[in-house]
Amino acid sequence: MIIRNSAYGEEWGLLDPKVLERTKNKPLLSDEEAIAPIDLSSIDFQNARDRMGSPNKDLASSSIINKSILIKCENRYIPAIVCRSASKIPTRNACLYLHGGGFIGGNSSTLLNQCRLIAEKADCTVISLDYRLAPETPFPGLCMILMKQCNGLLIIKNI
Fold it and tell me: Long-range contact list for 60-67, CB < 8 A, 24+ apart?
């Protein structure tokens, strides 16, 4: 995990101004609403996934290589994107990057620029997995698959 100042200011943990503005405009939930069960059958997950992510800028100032790979995990292959410096000897340091999306959405390409910047600033190889999502892979199955993927990464050489 990298903990650093926000790109939007020098205060630790400063929230993106656009996210802050959207948050201010949302109504507060009552206690009853917050704990009410959710009927997942009424949610269009594909529509929600299609709307995730936003345009972002590549902030890496040096040349970073992006490479799409497939990682063997039991009887299937998991897509991933690997980012590393193009100008330096590959490092043994690595960062396994799990994109956001609450385990229901998101993908590695949406946050490619973030992975490129981490690779540059942390001088490491970043591996961003496209892991299975809920509800198709319900909890705790998703966590078990991620653990197996992590174990699979430990034996890969020359990413």
Answer: 60/113, 60/116, 60/117, 60/119, 60/120, 61/120, 62/86, 62/87, 62/120, 63/87, 64/116, 64/119, 64/120, 66/112, 66/116, 67/159
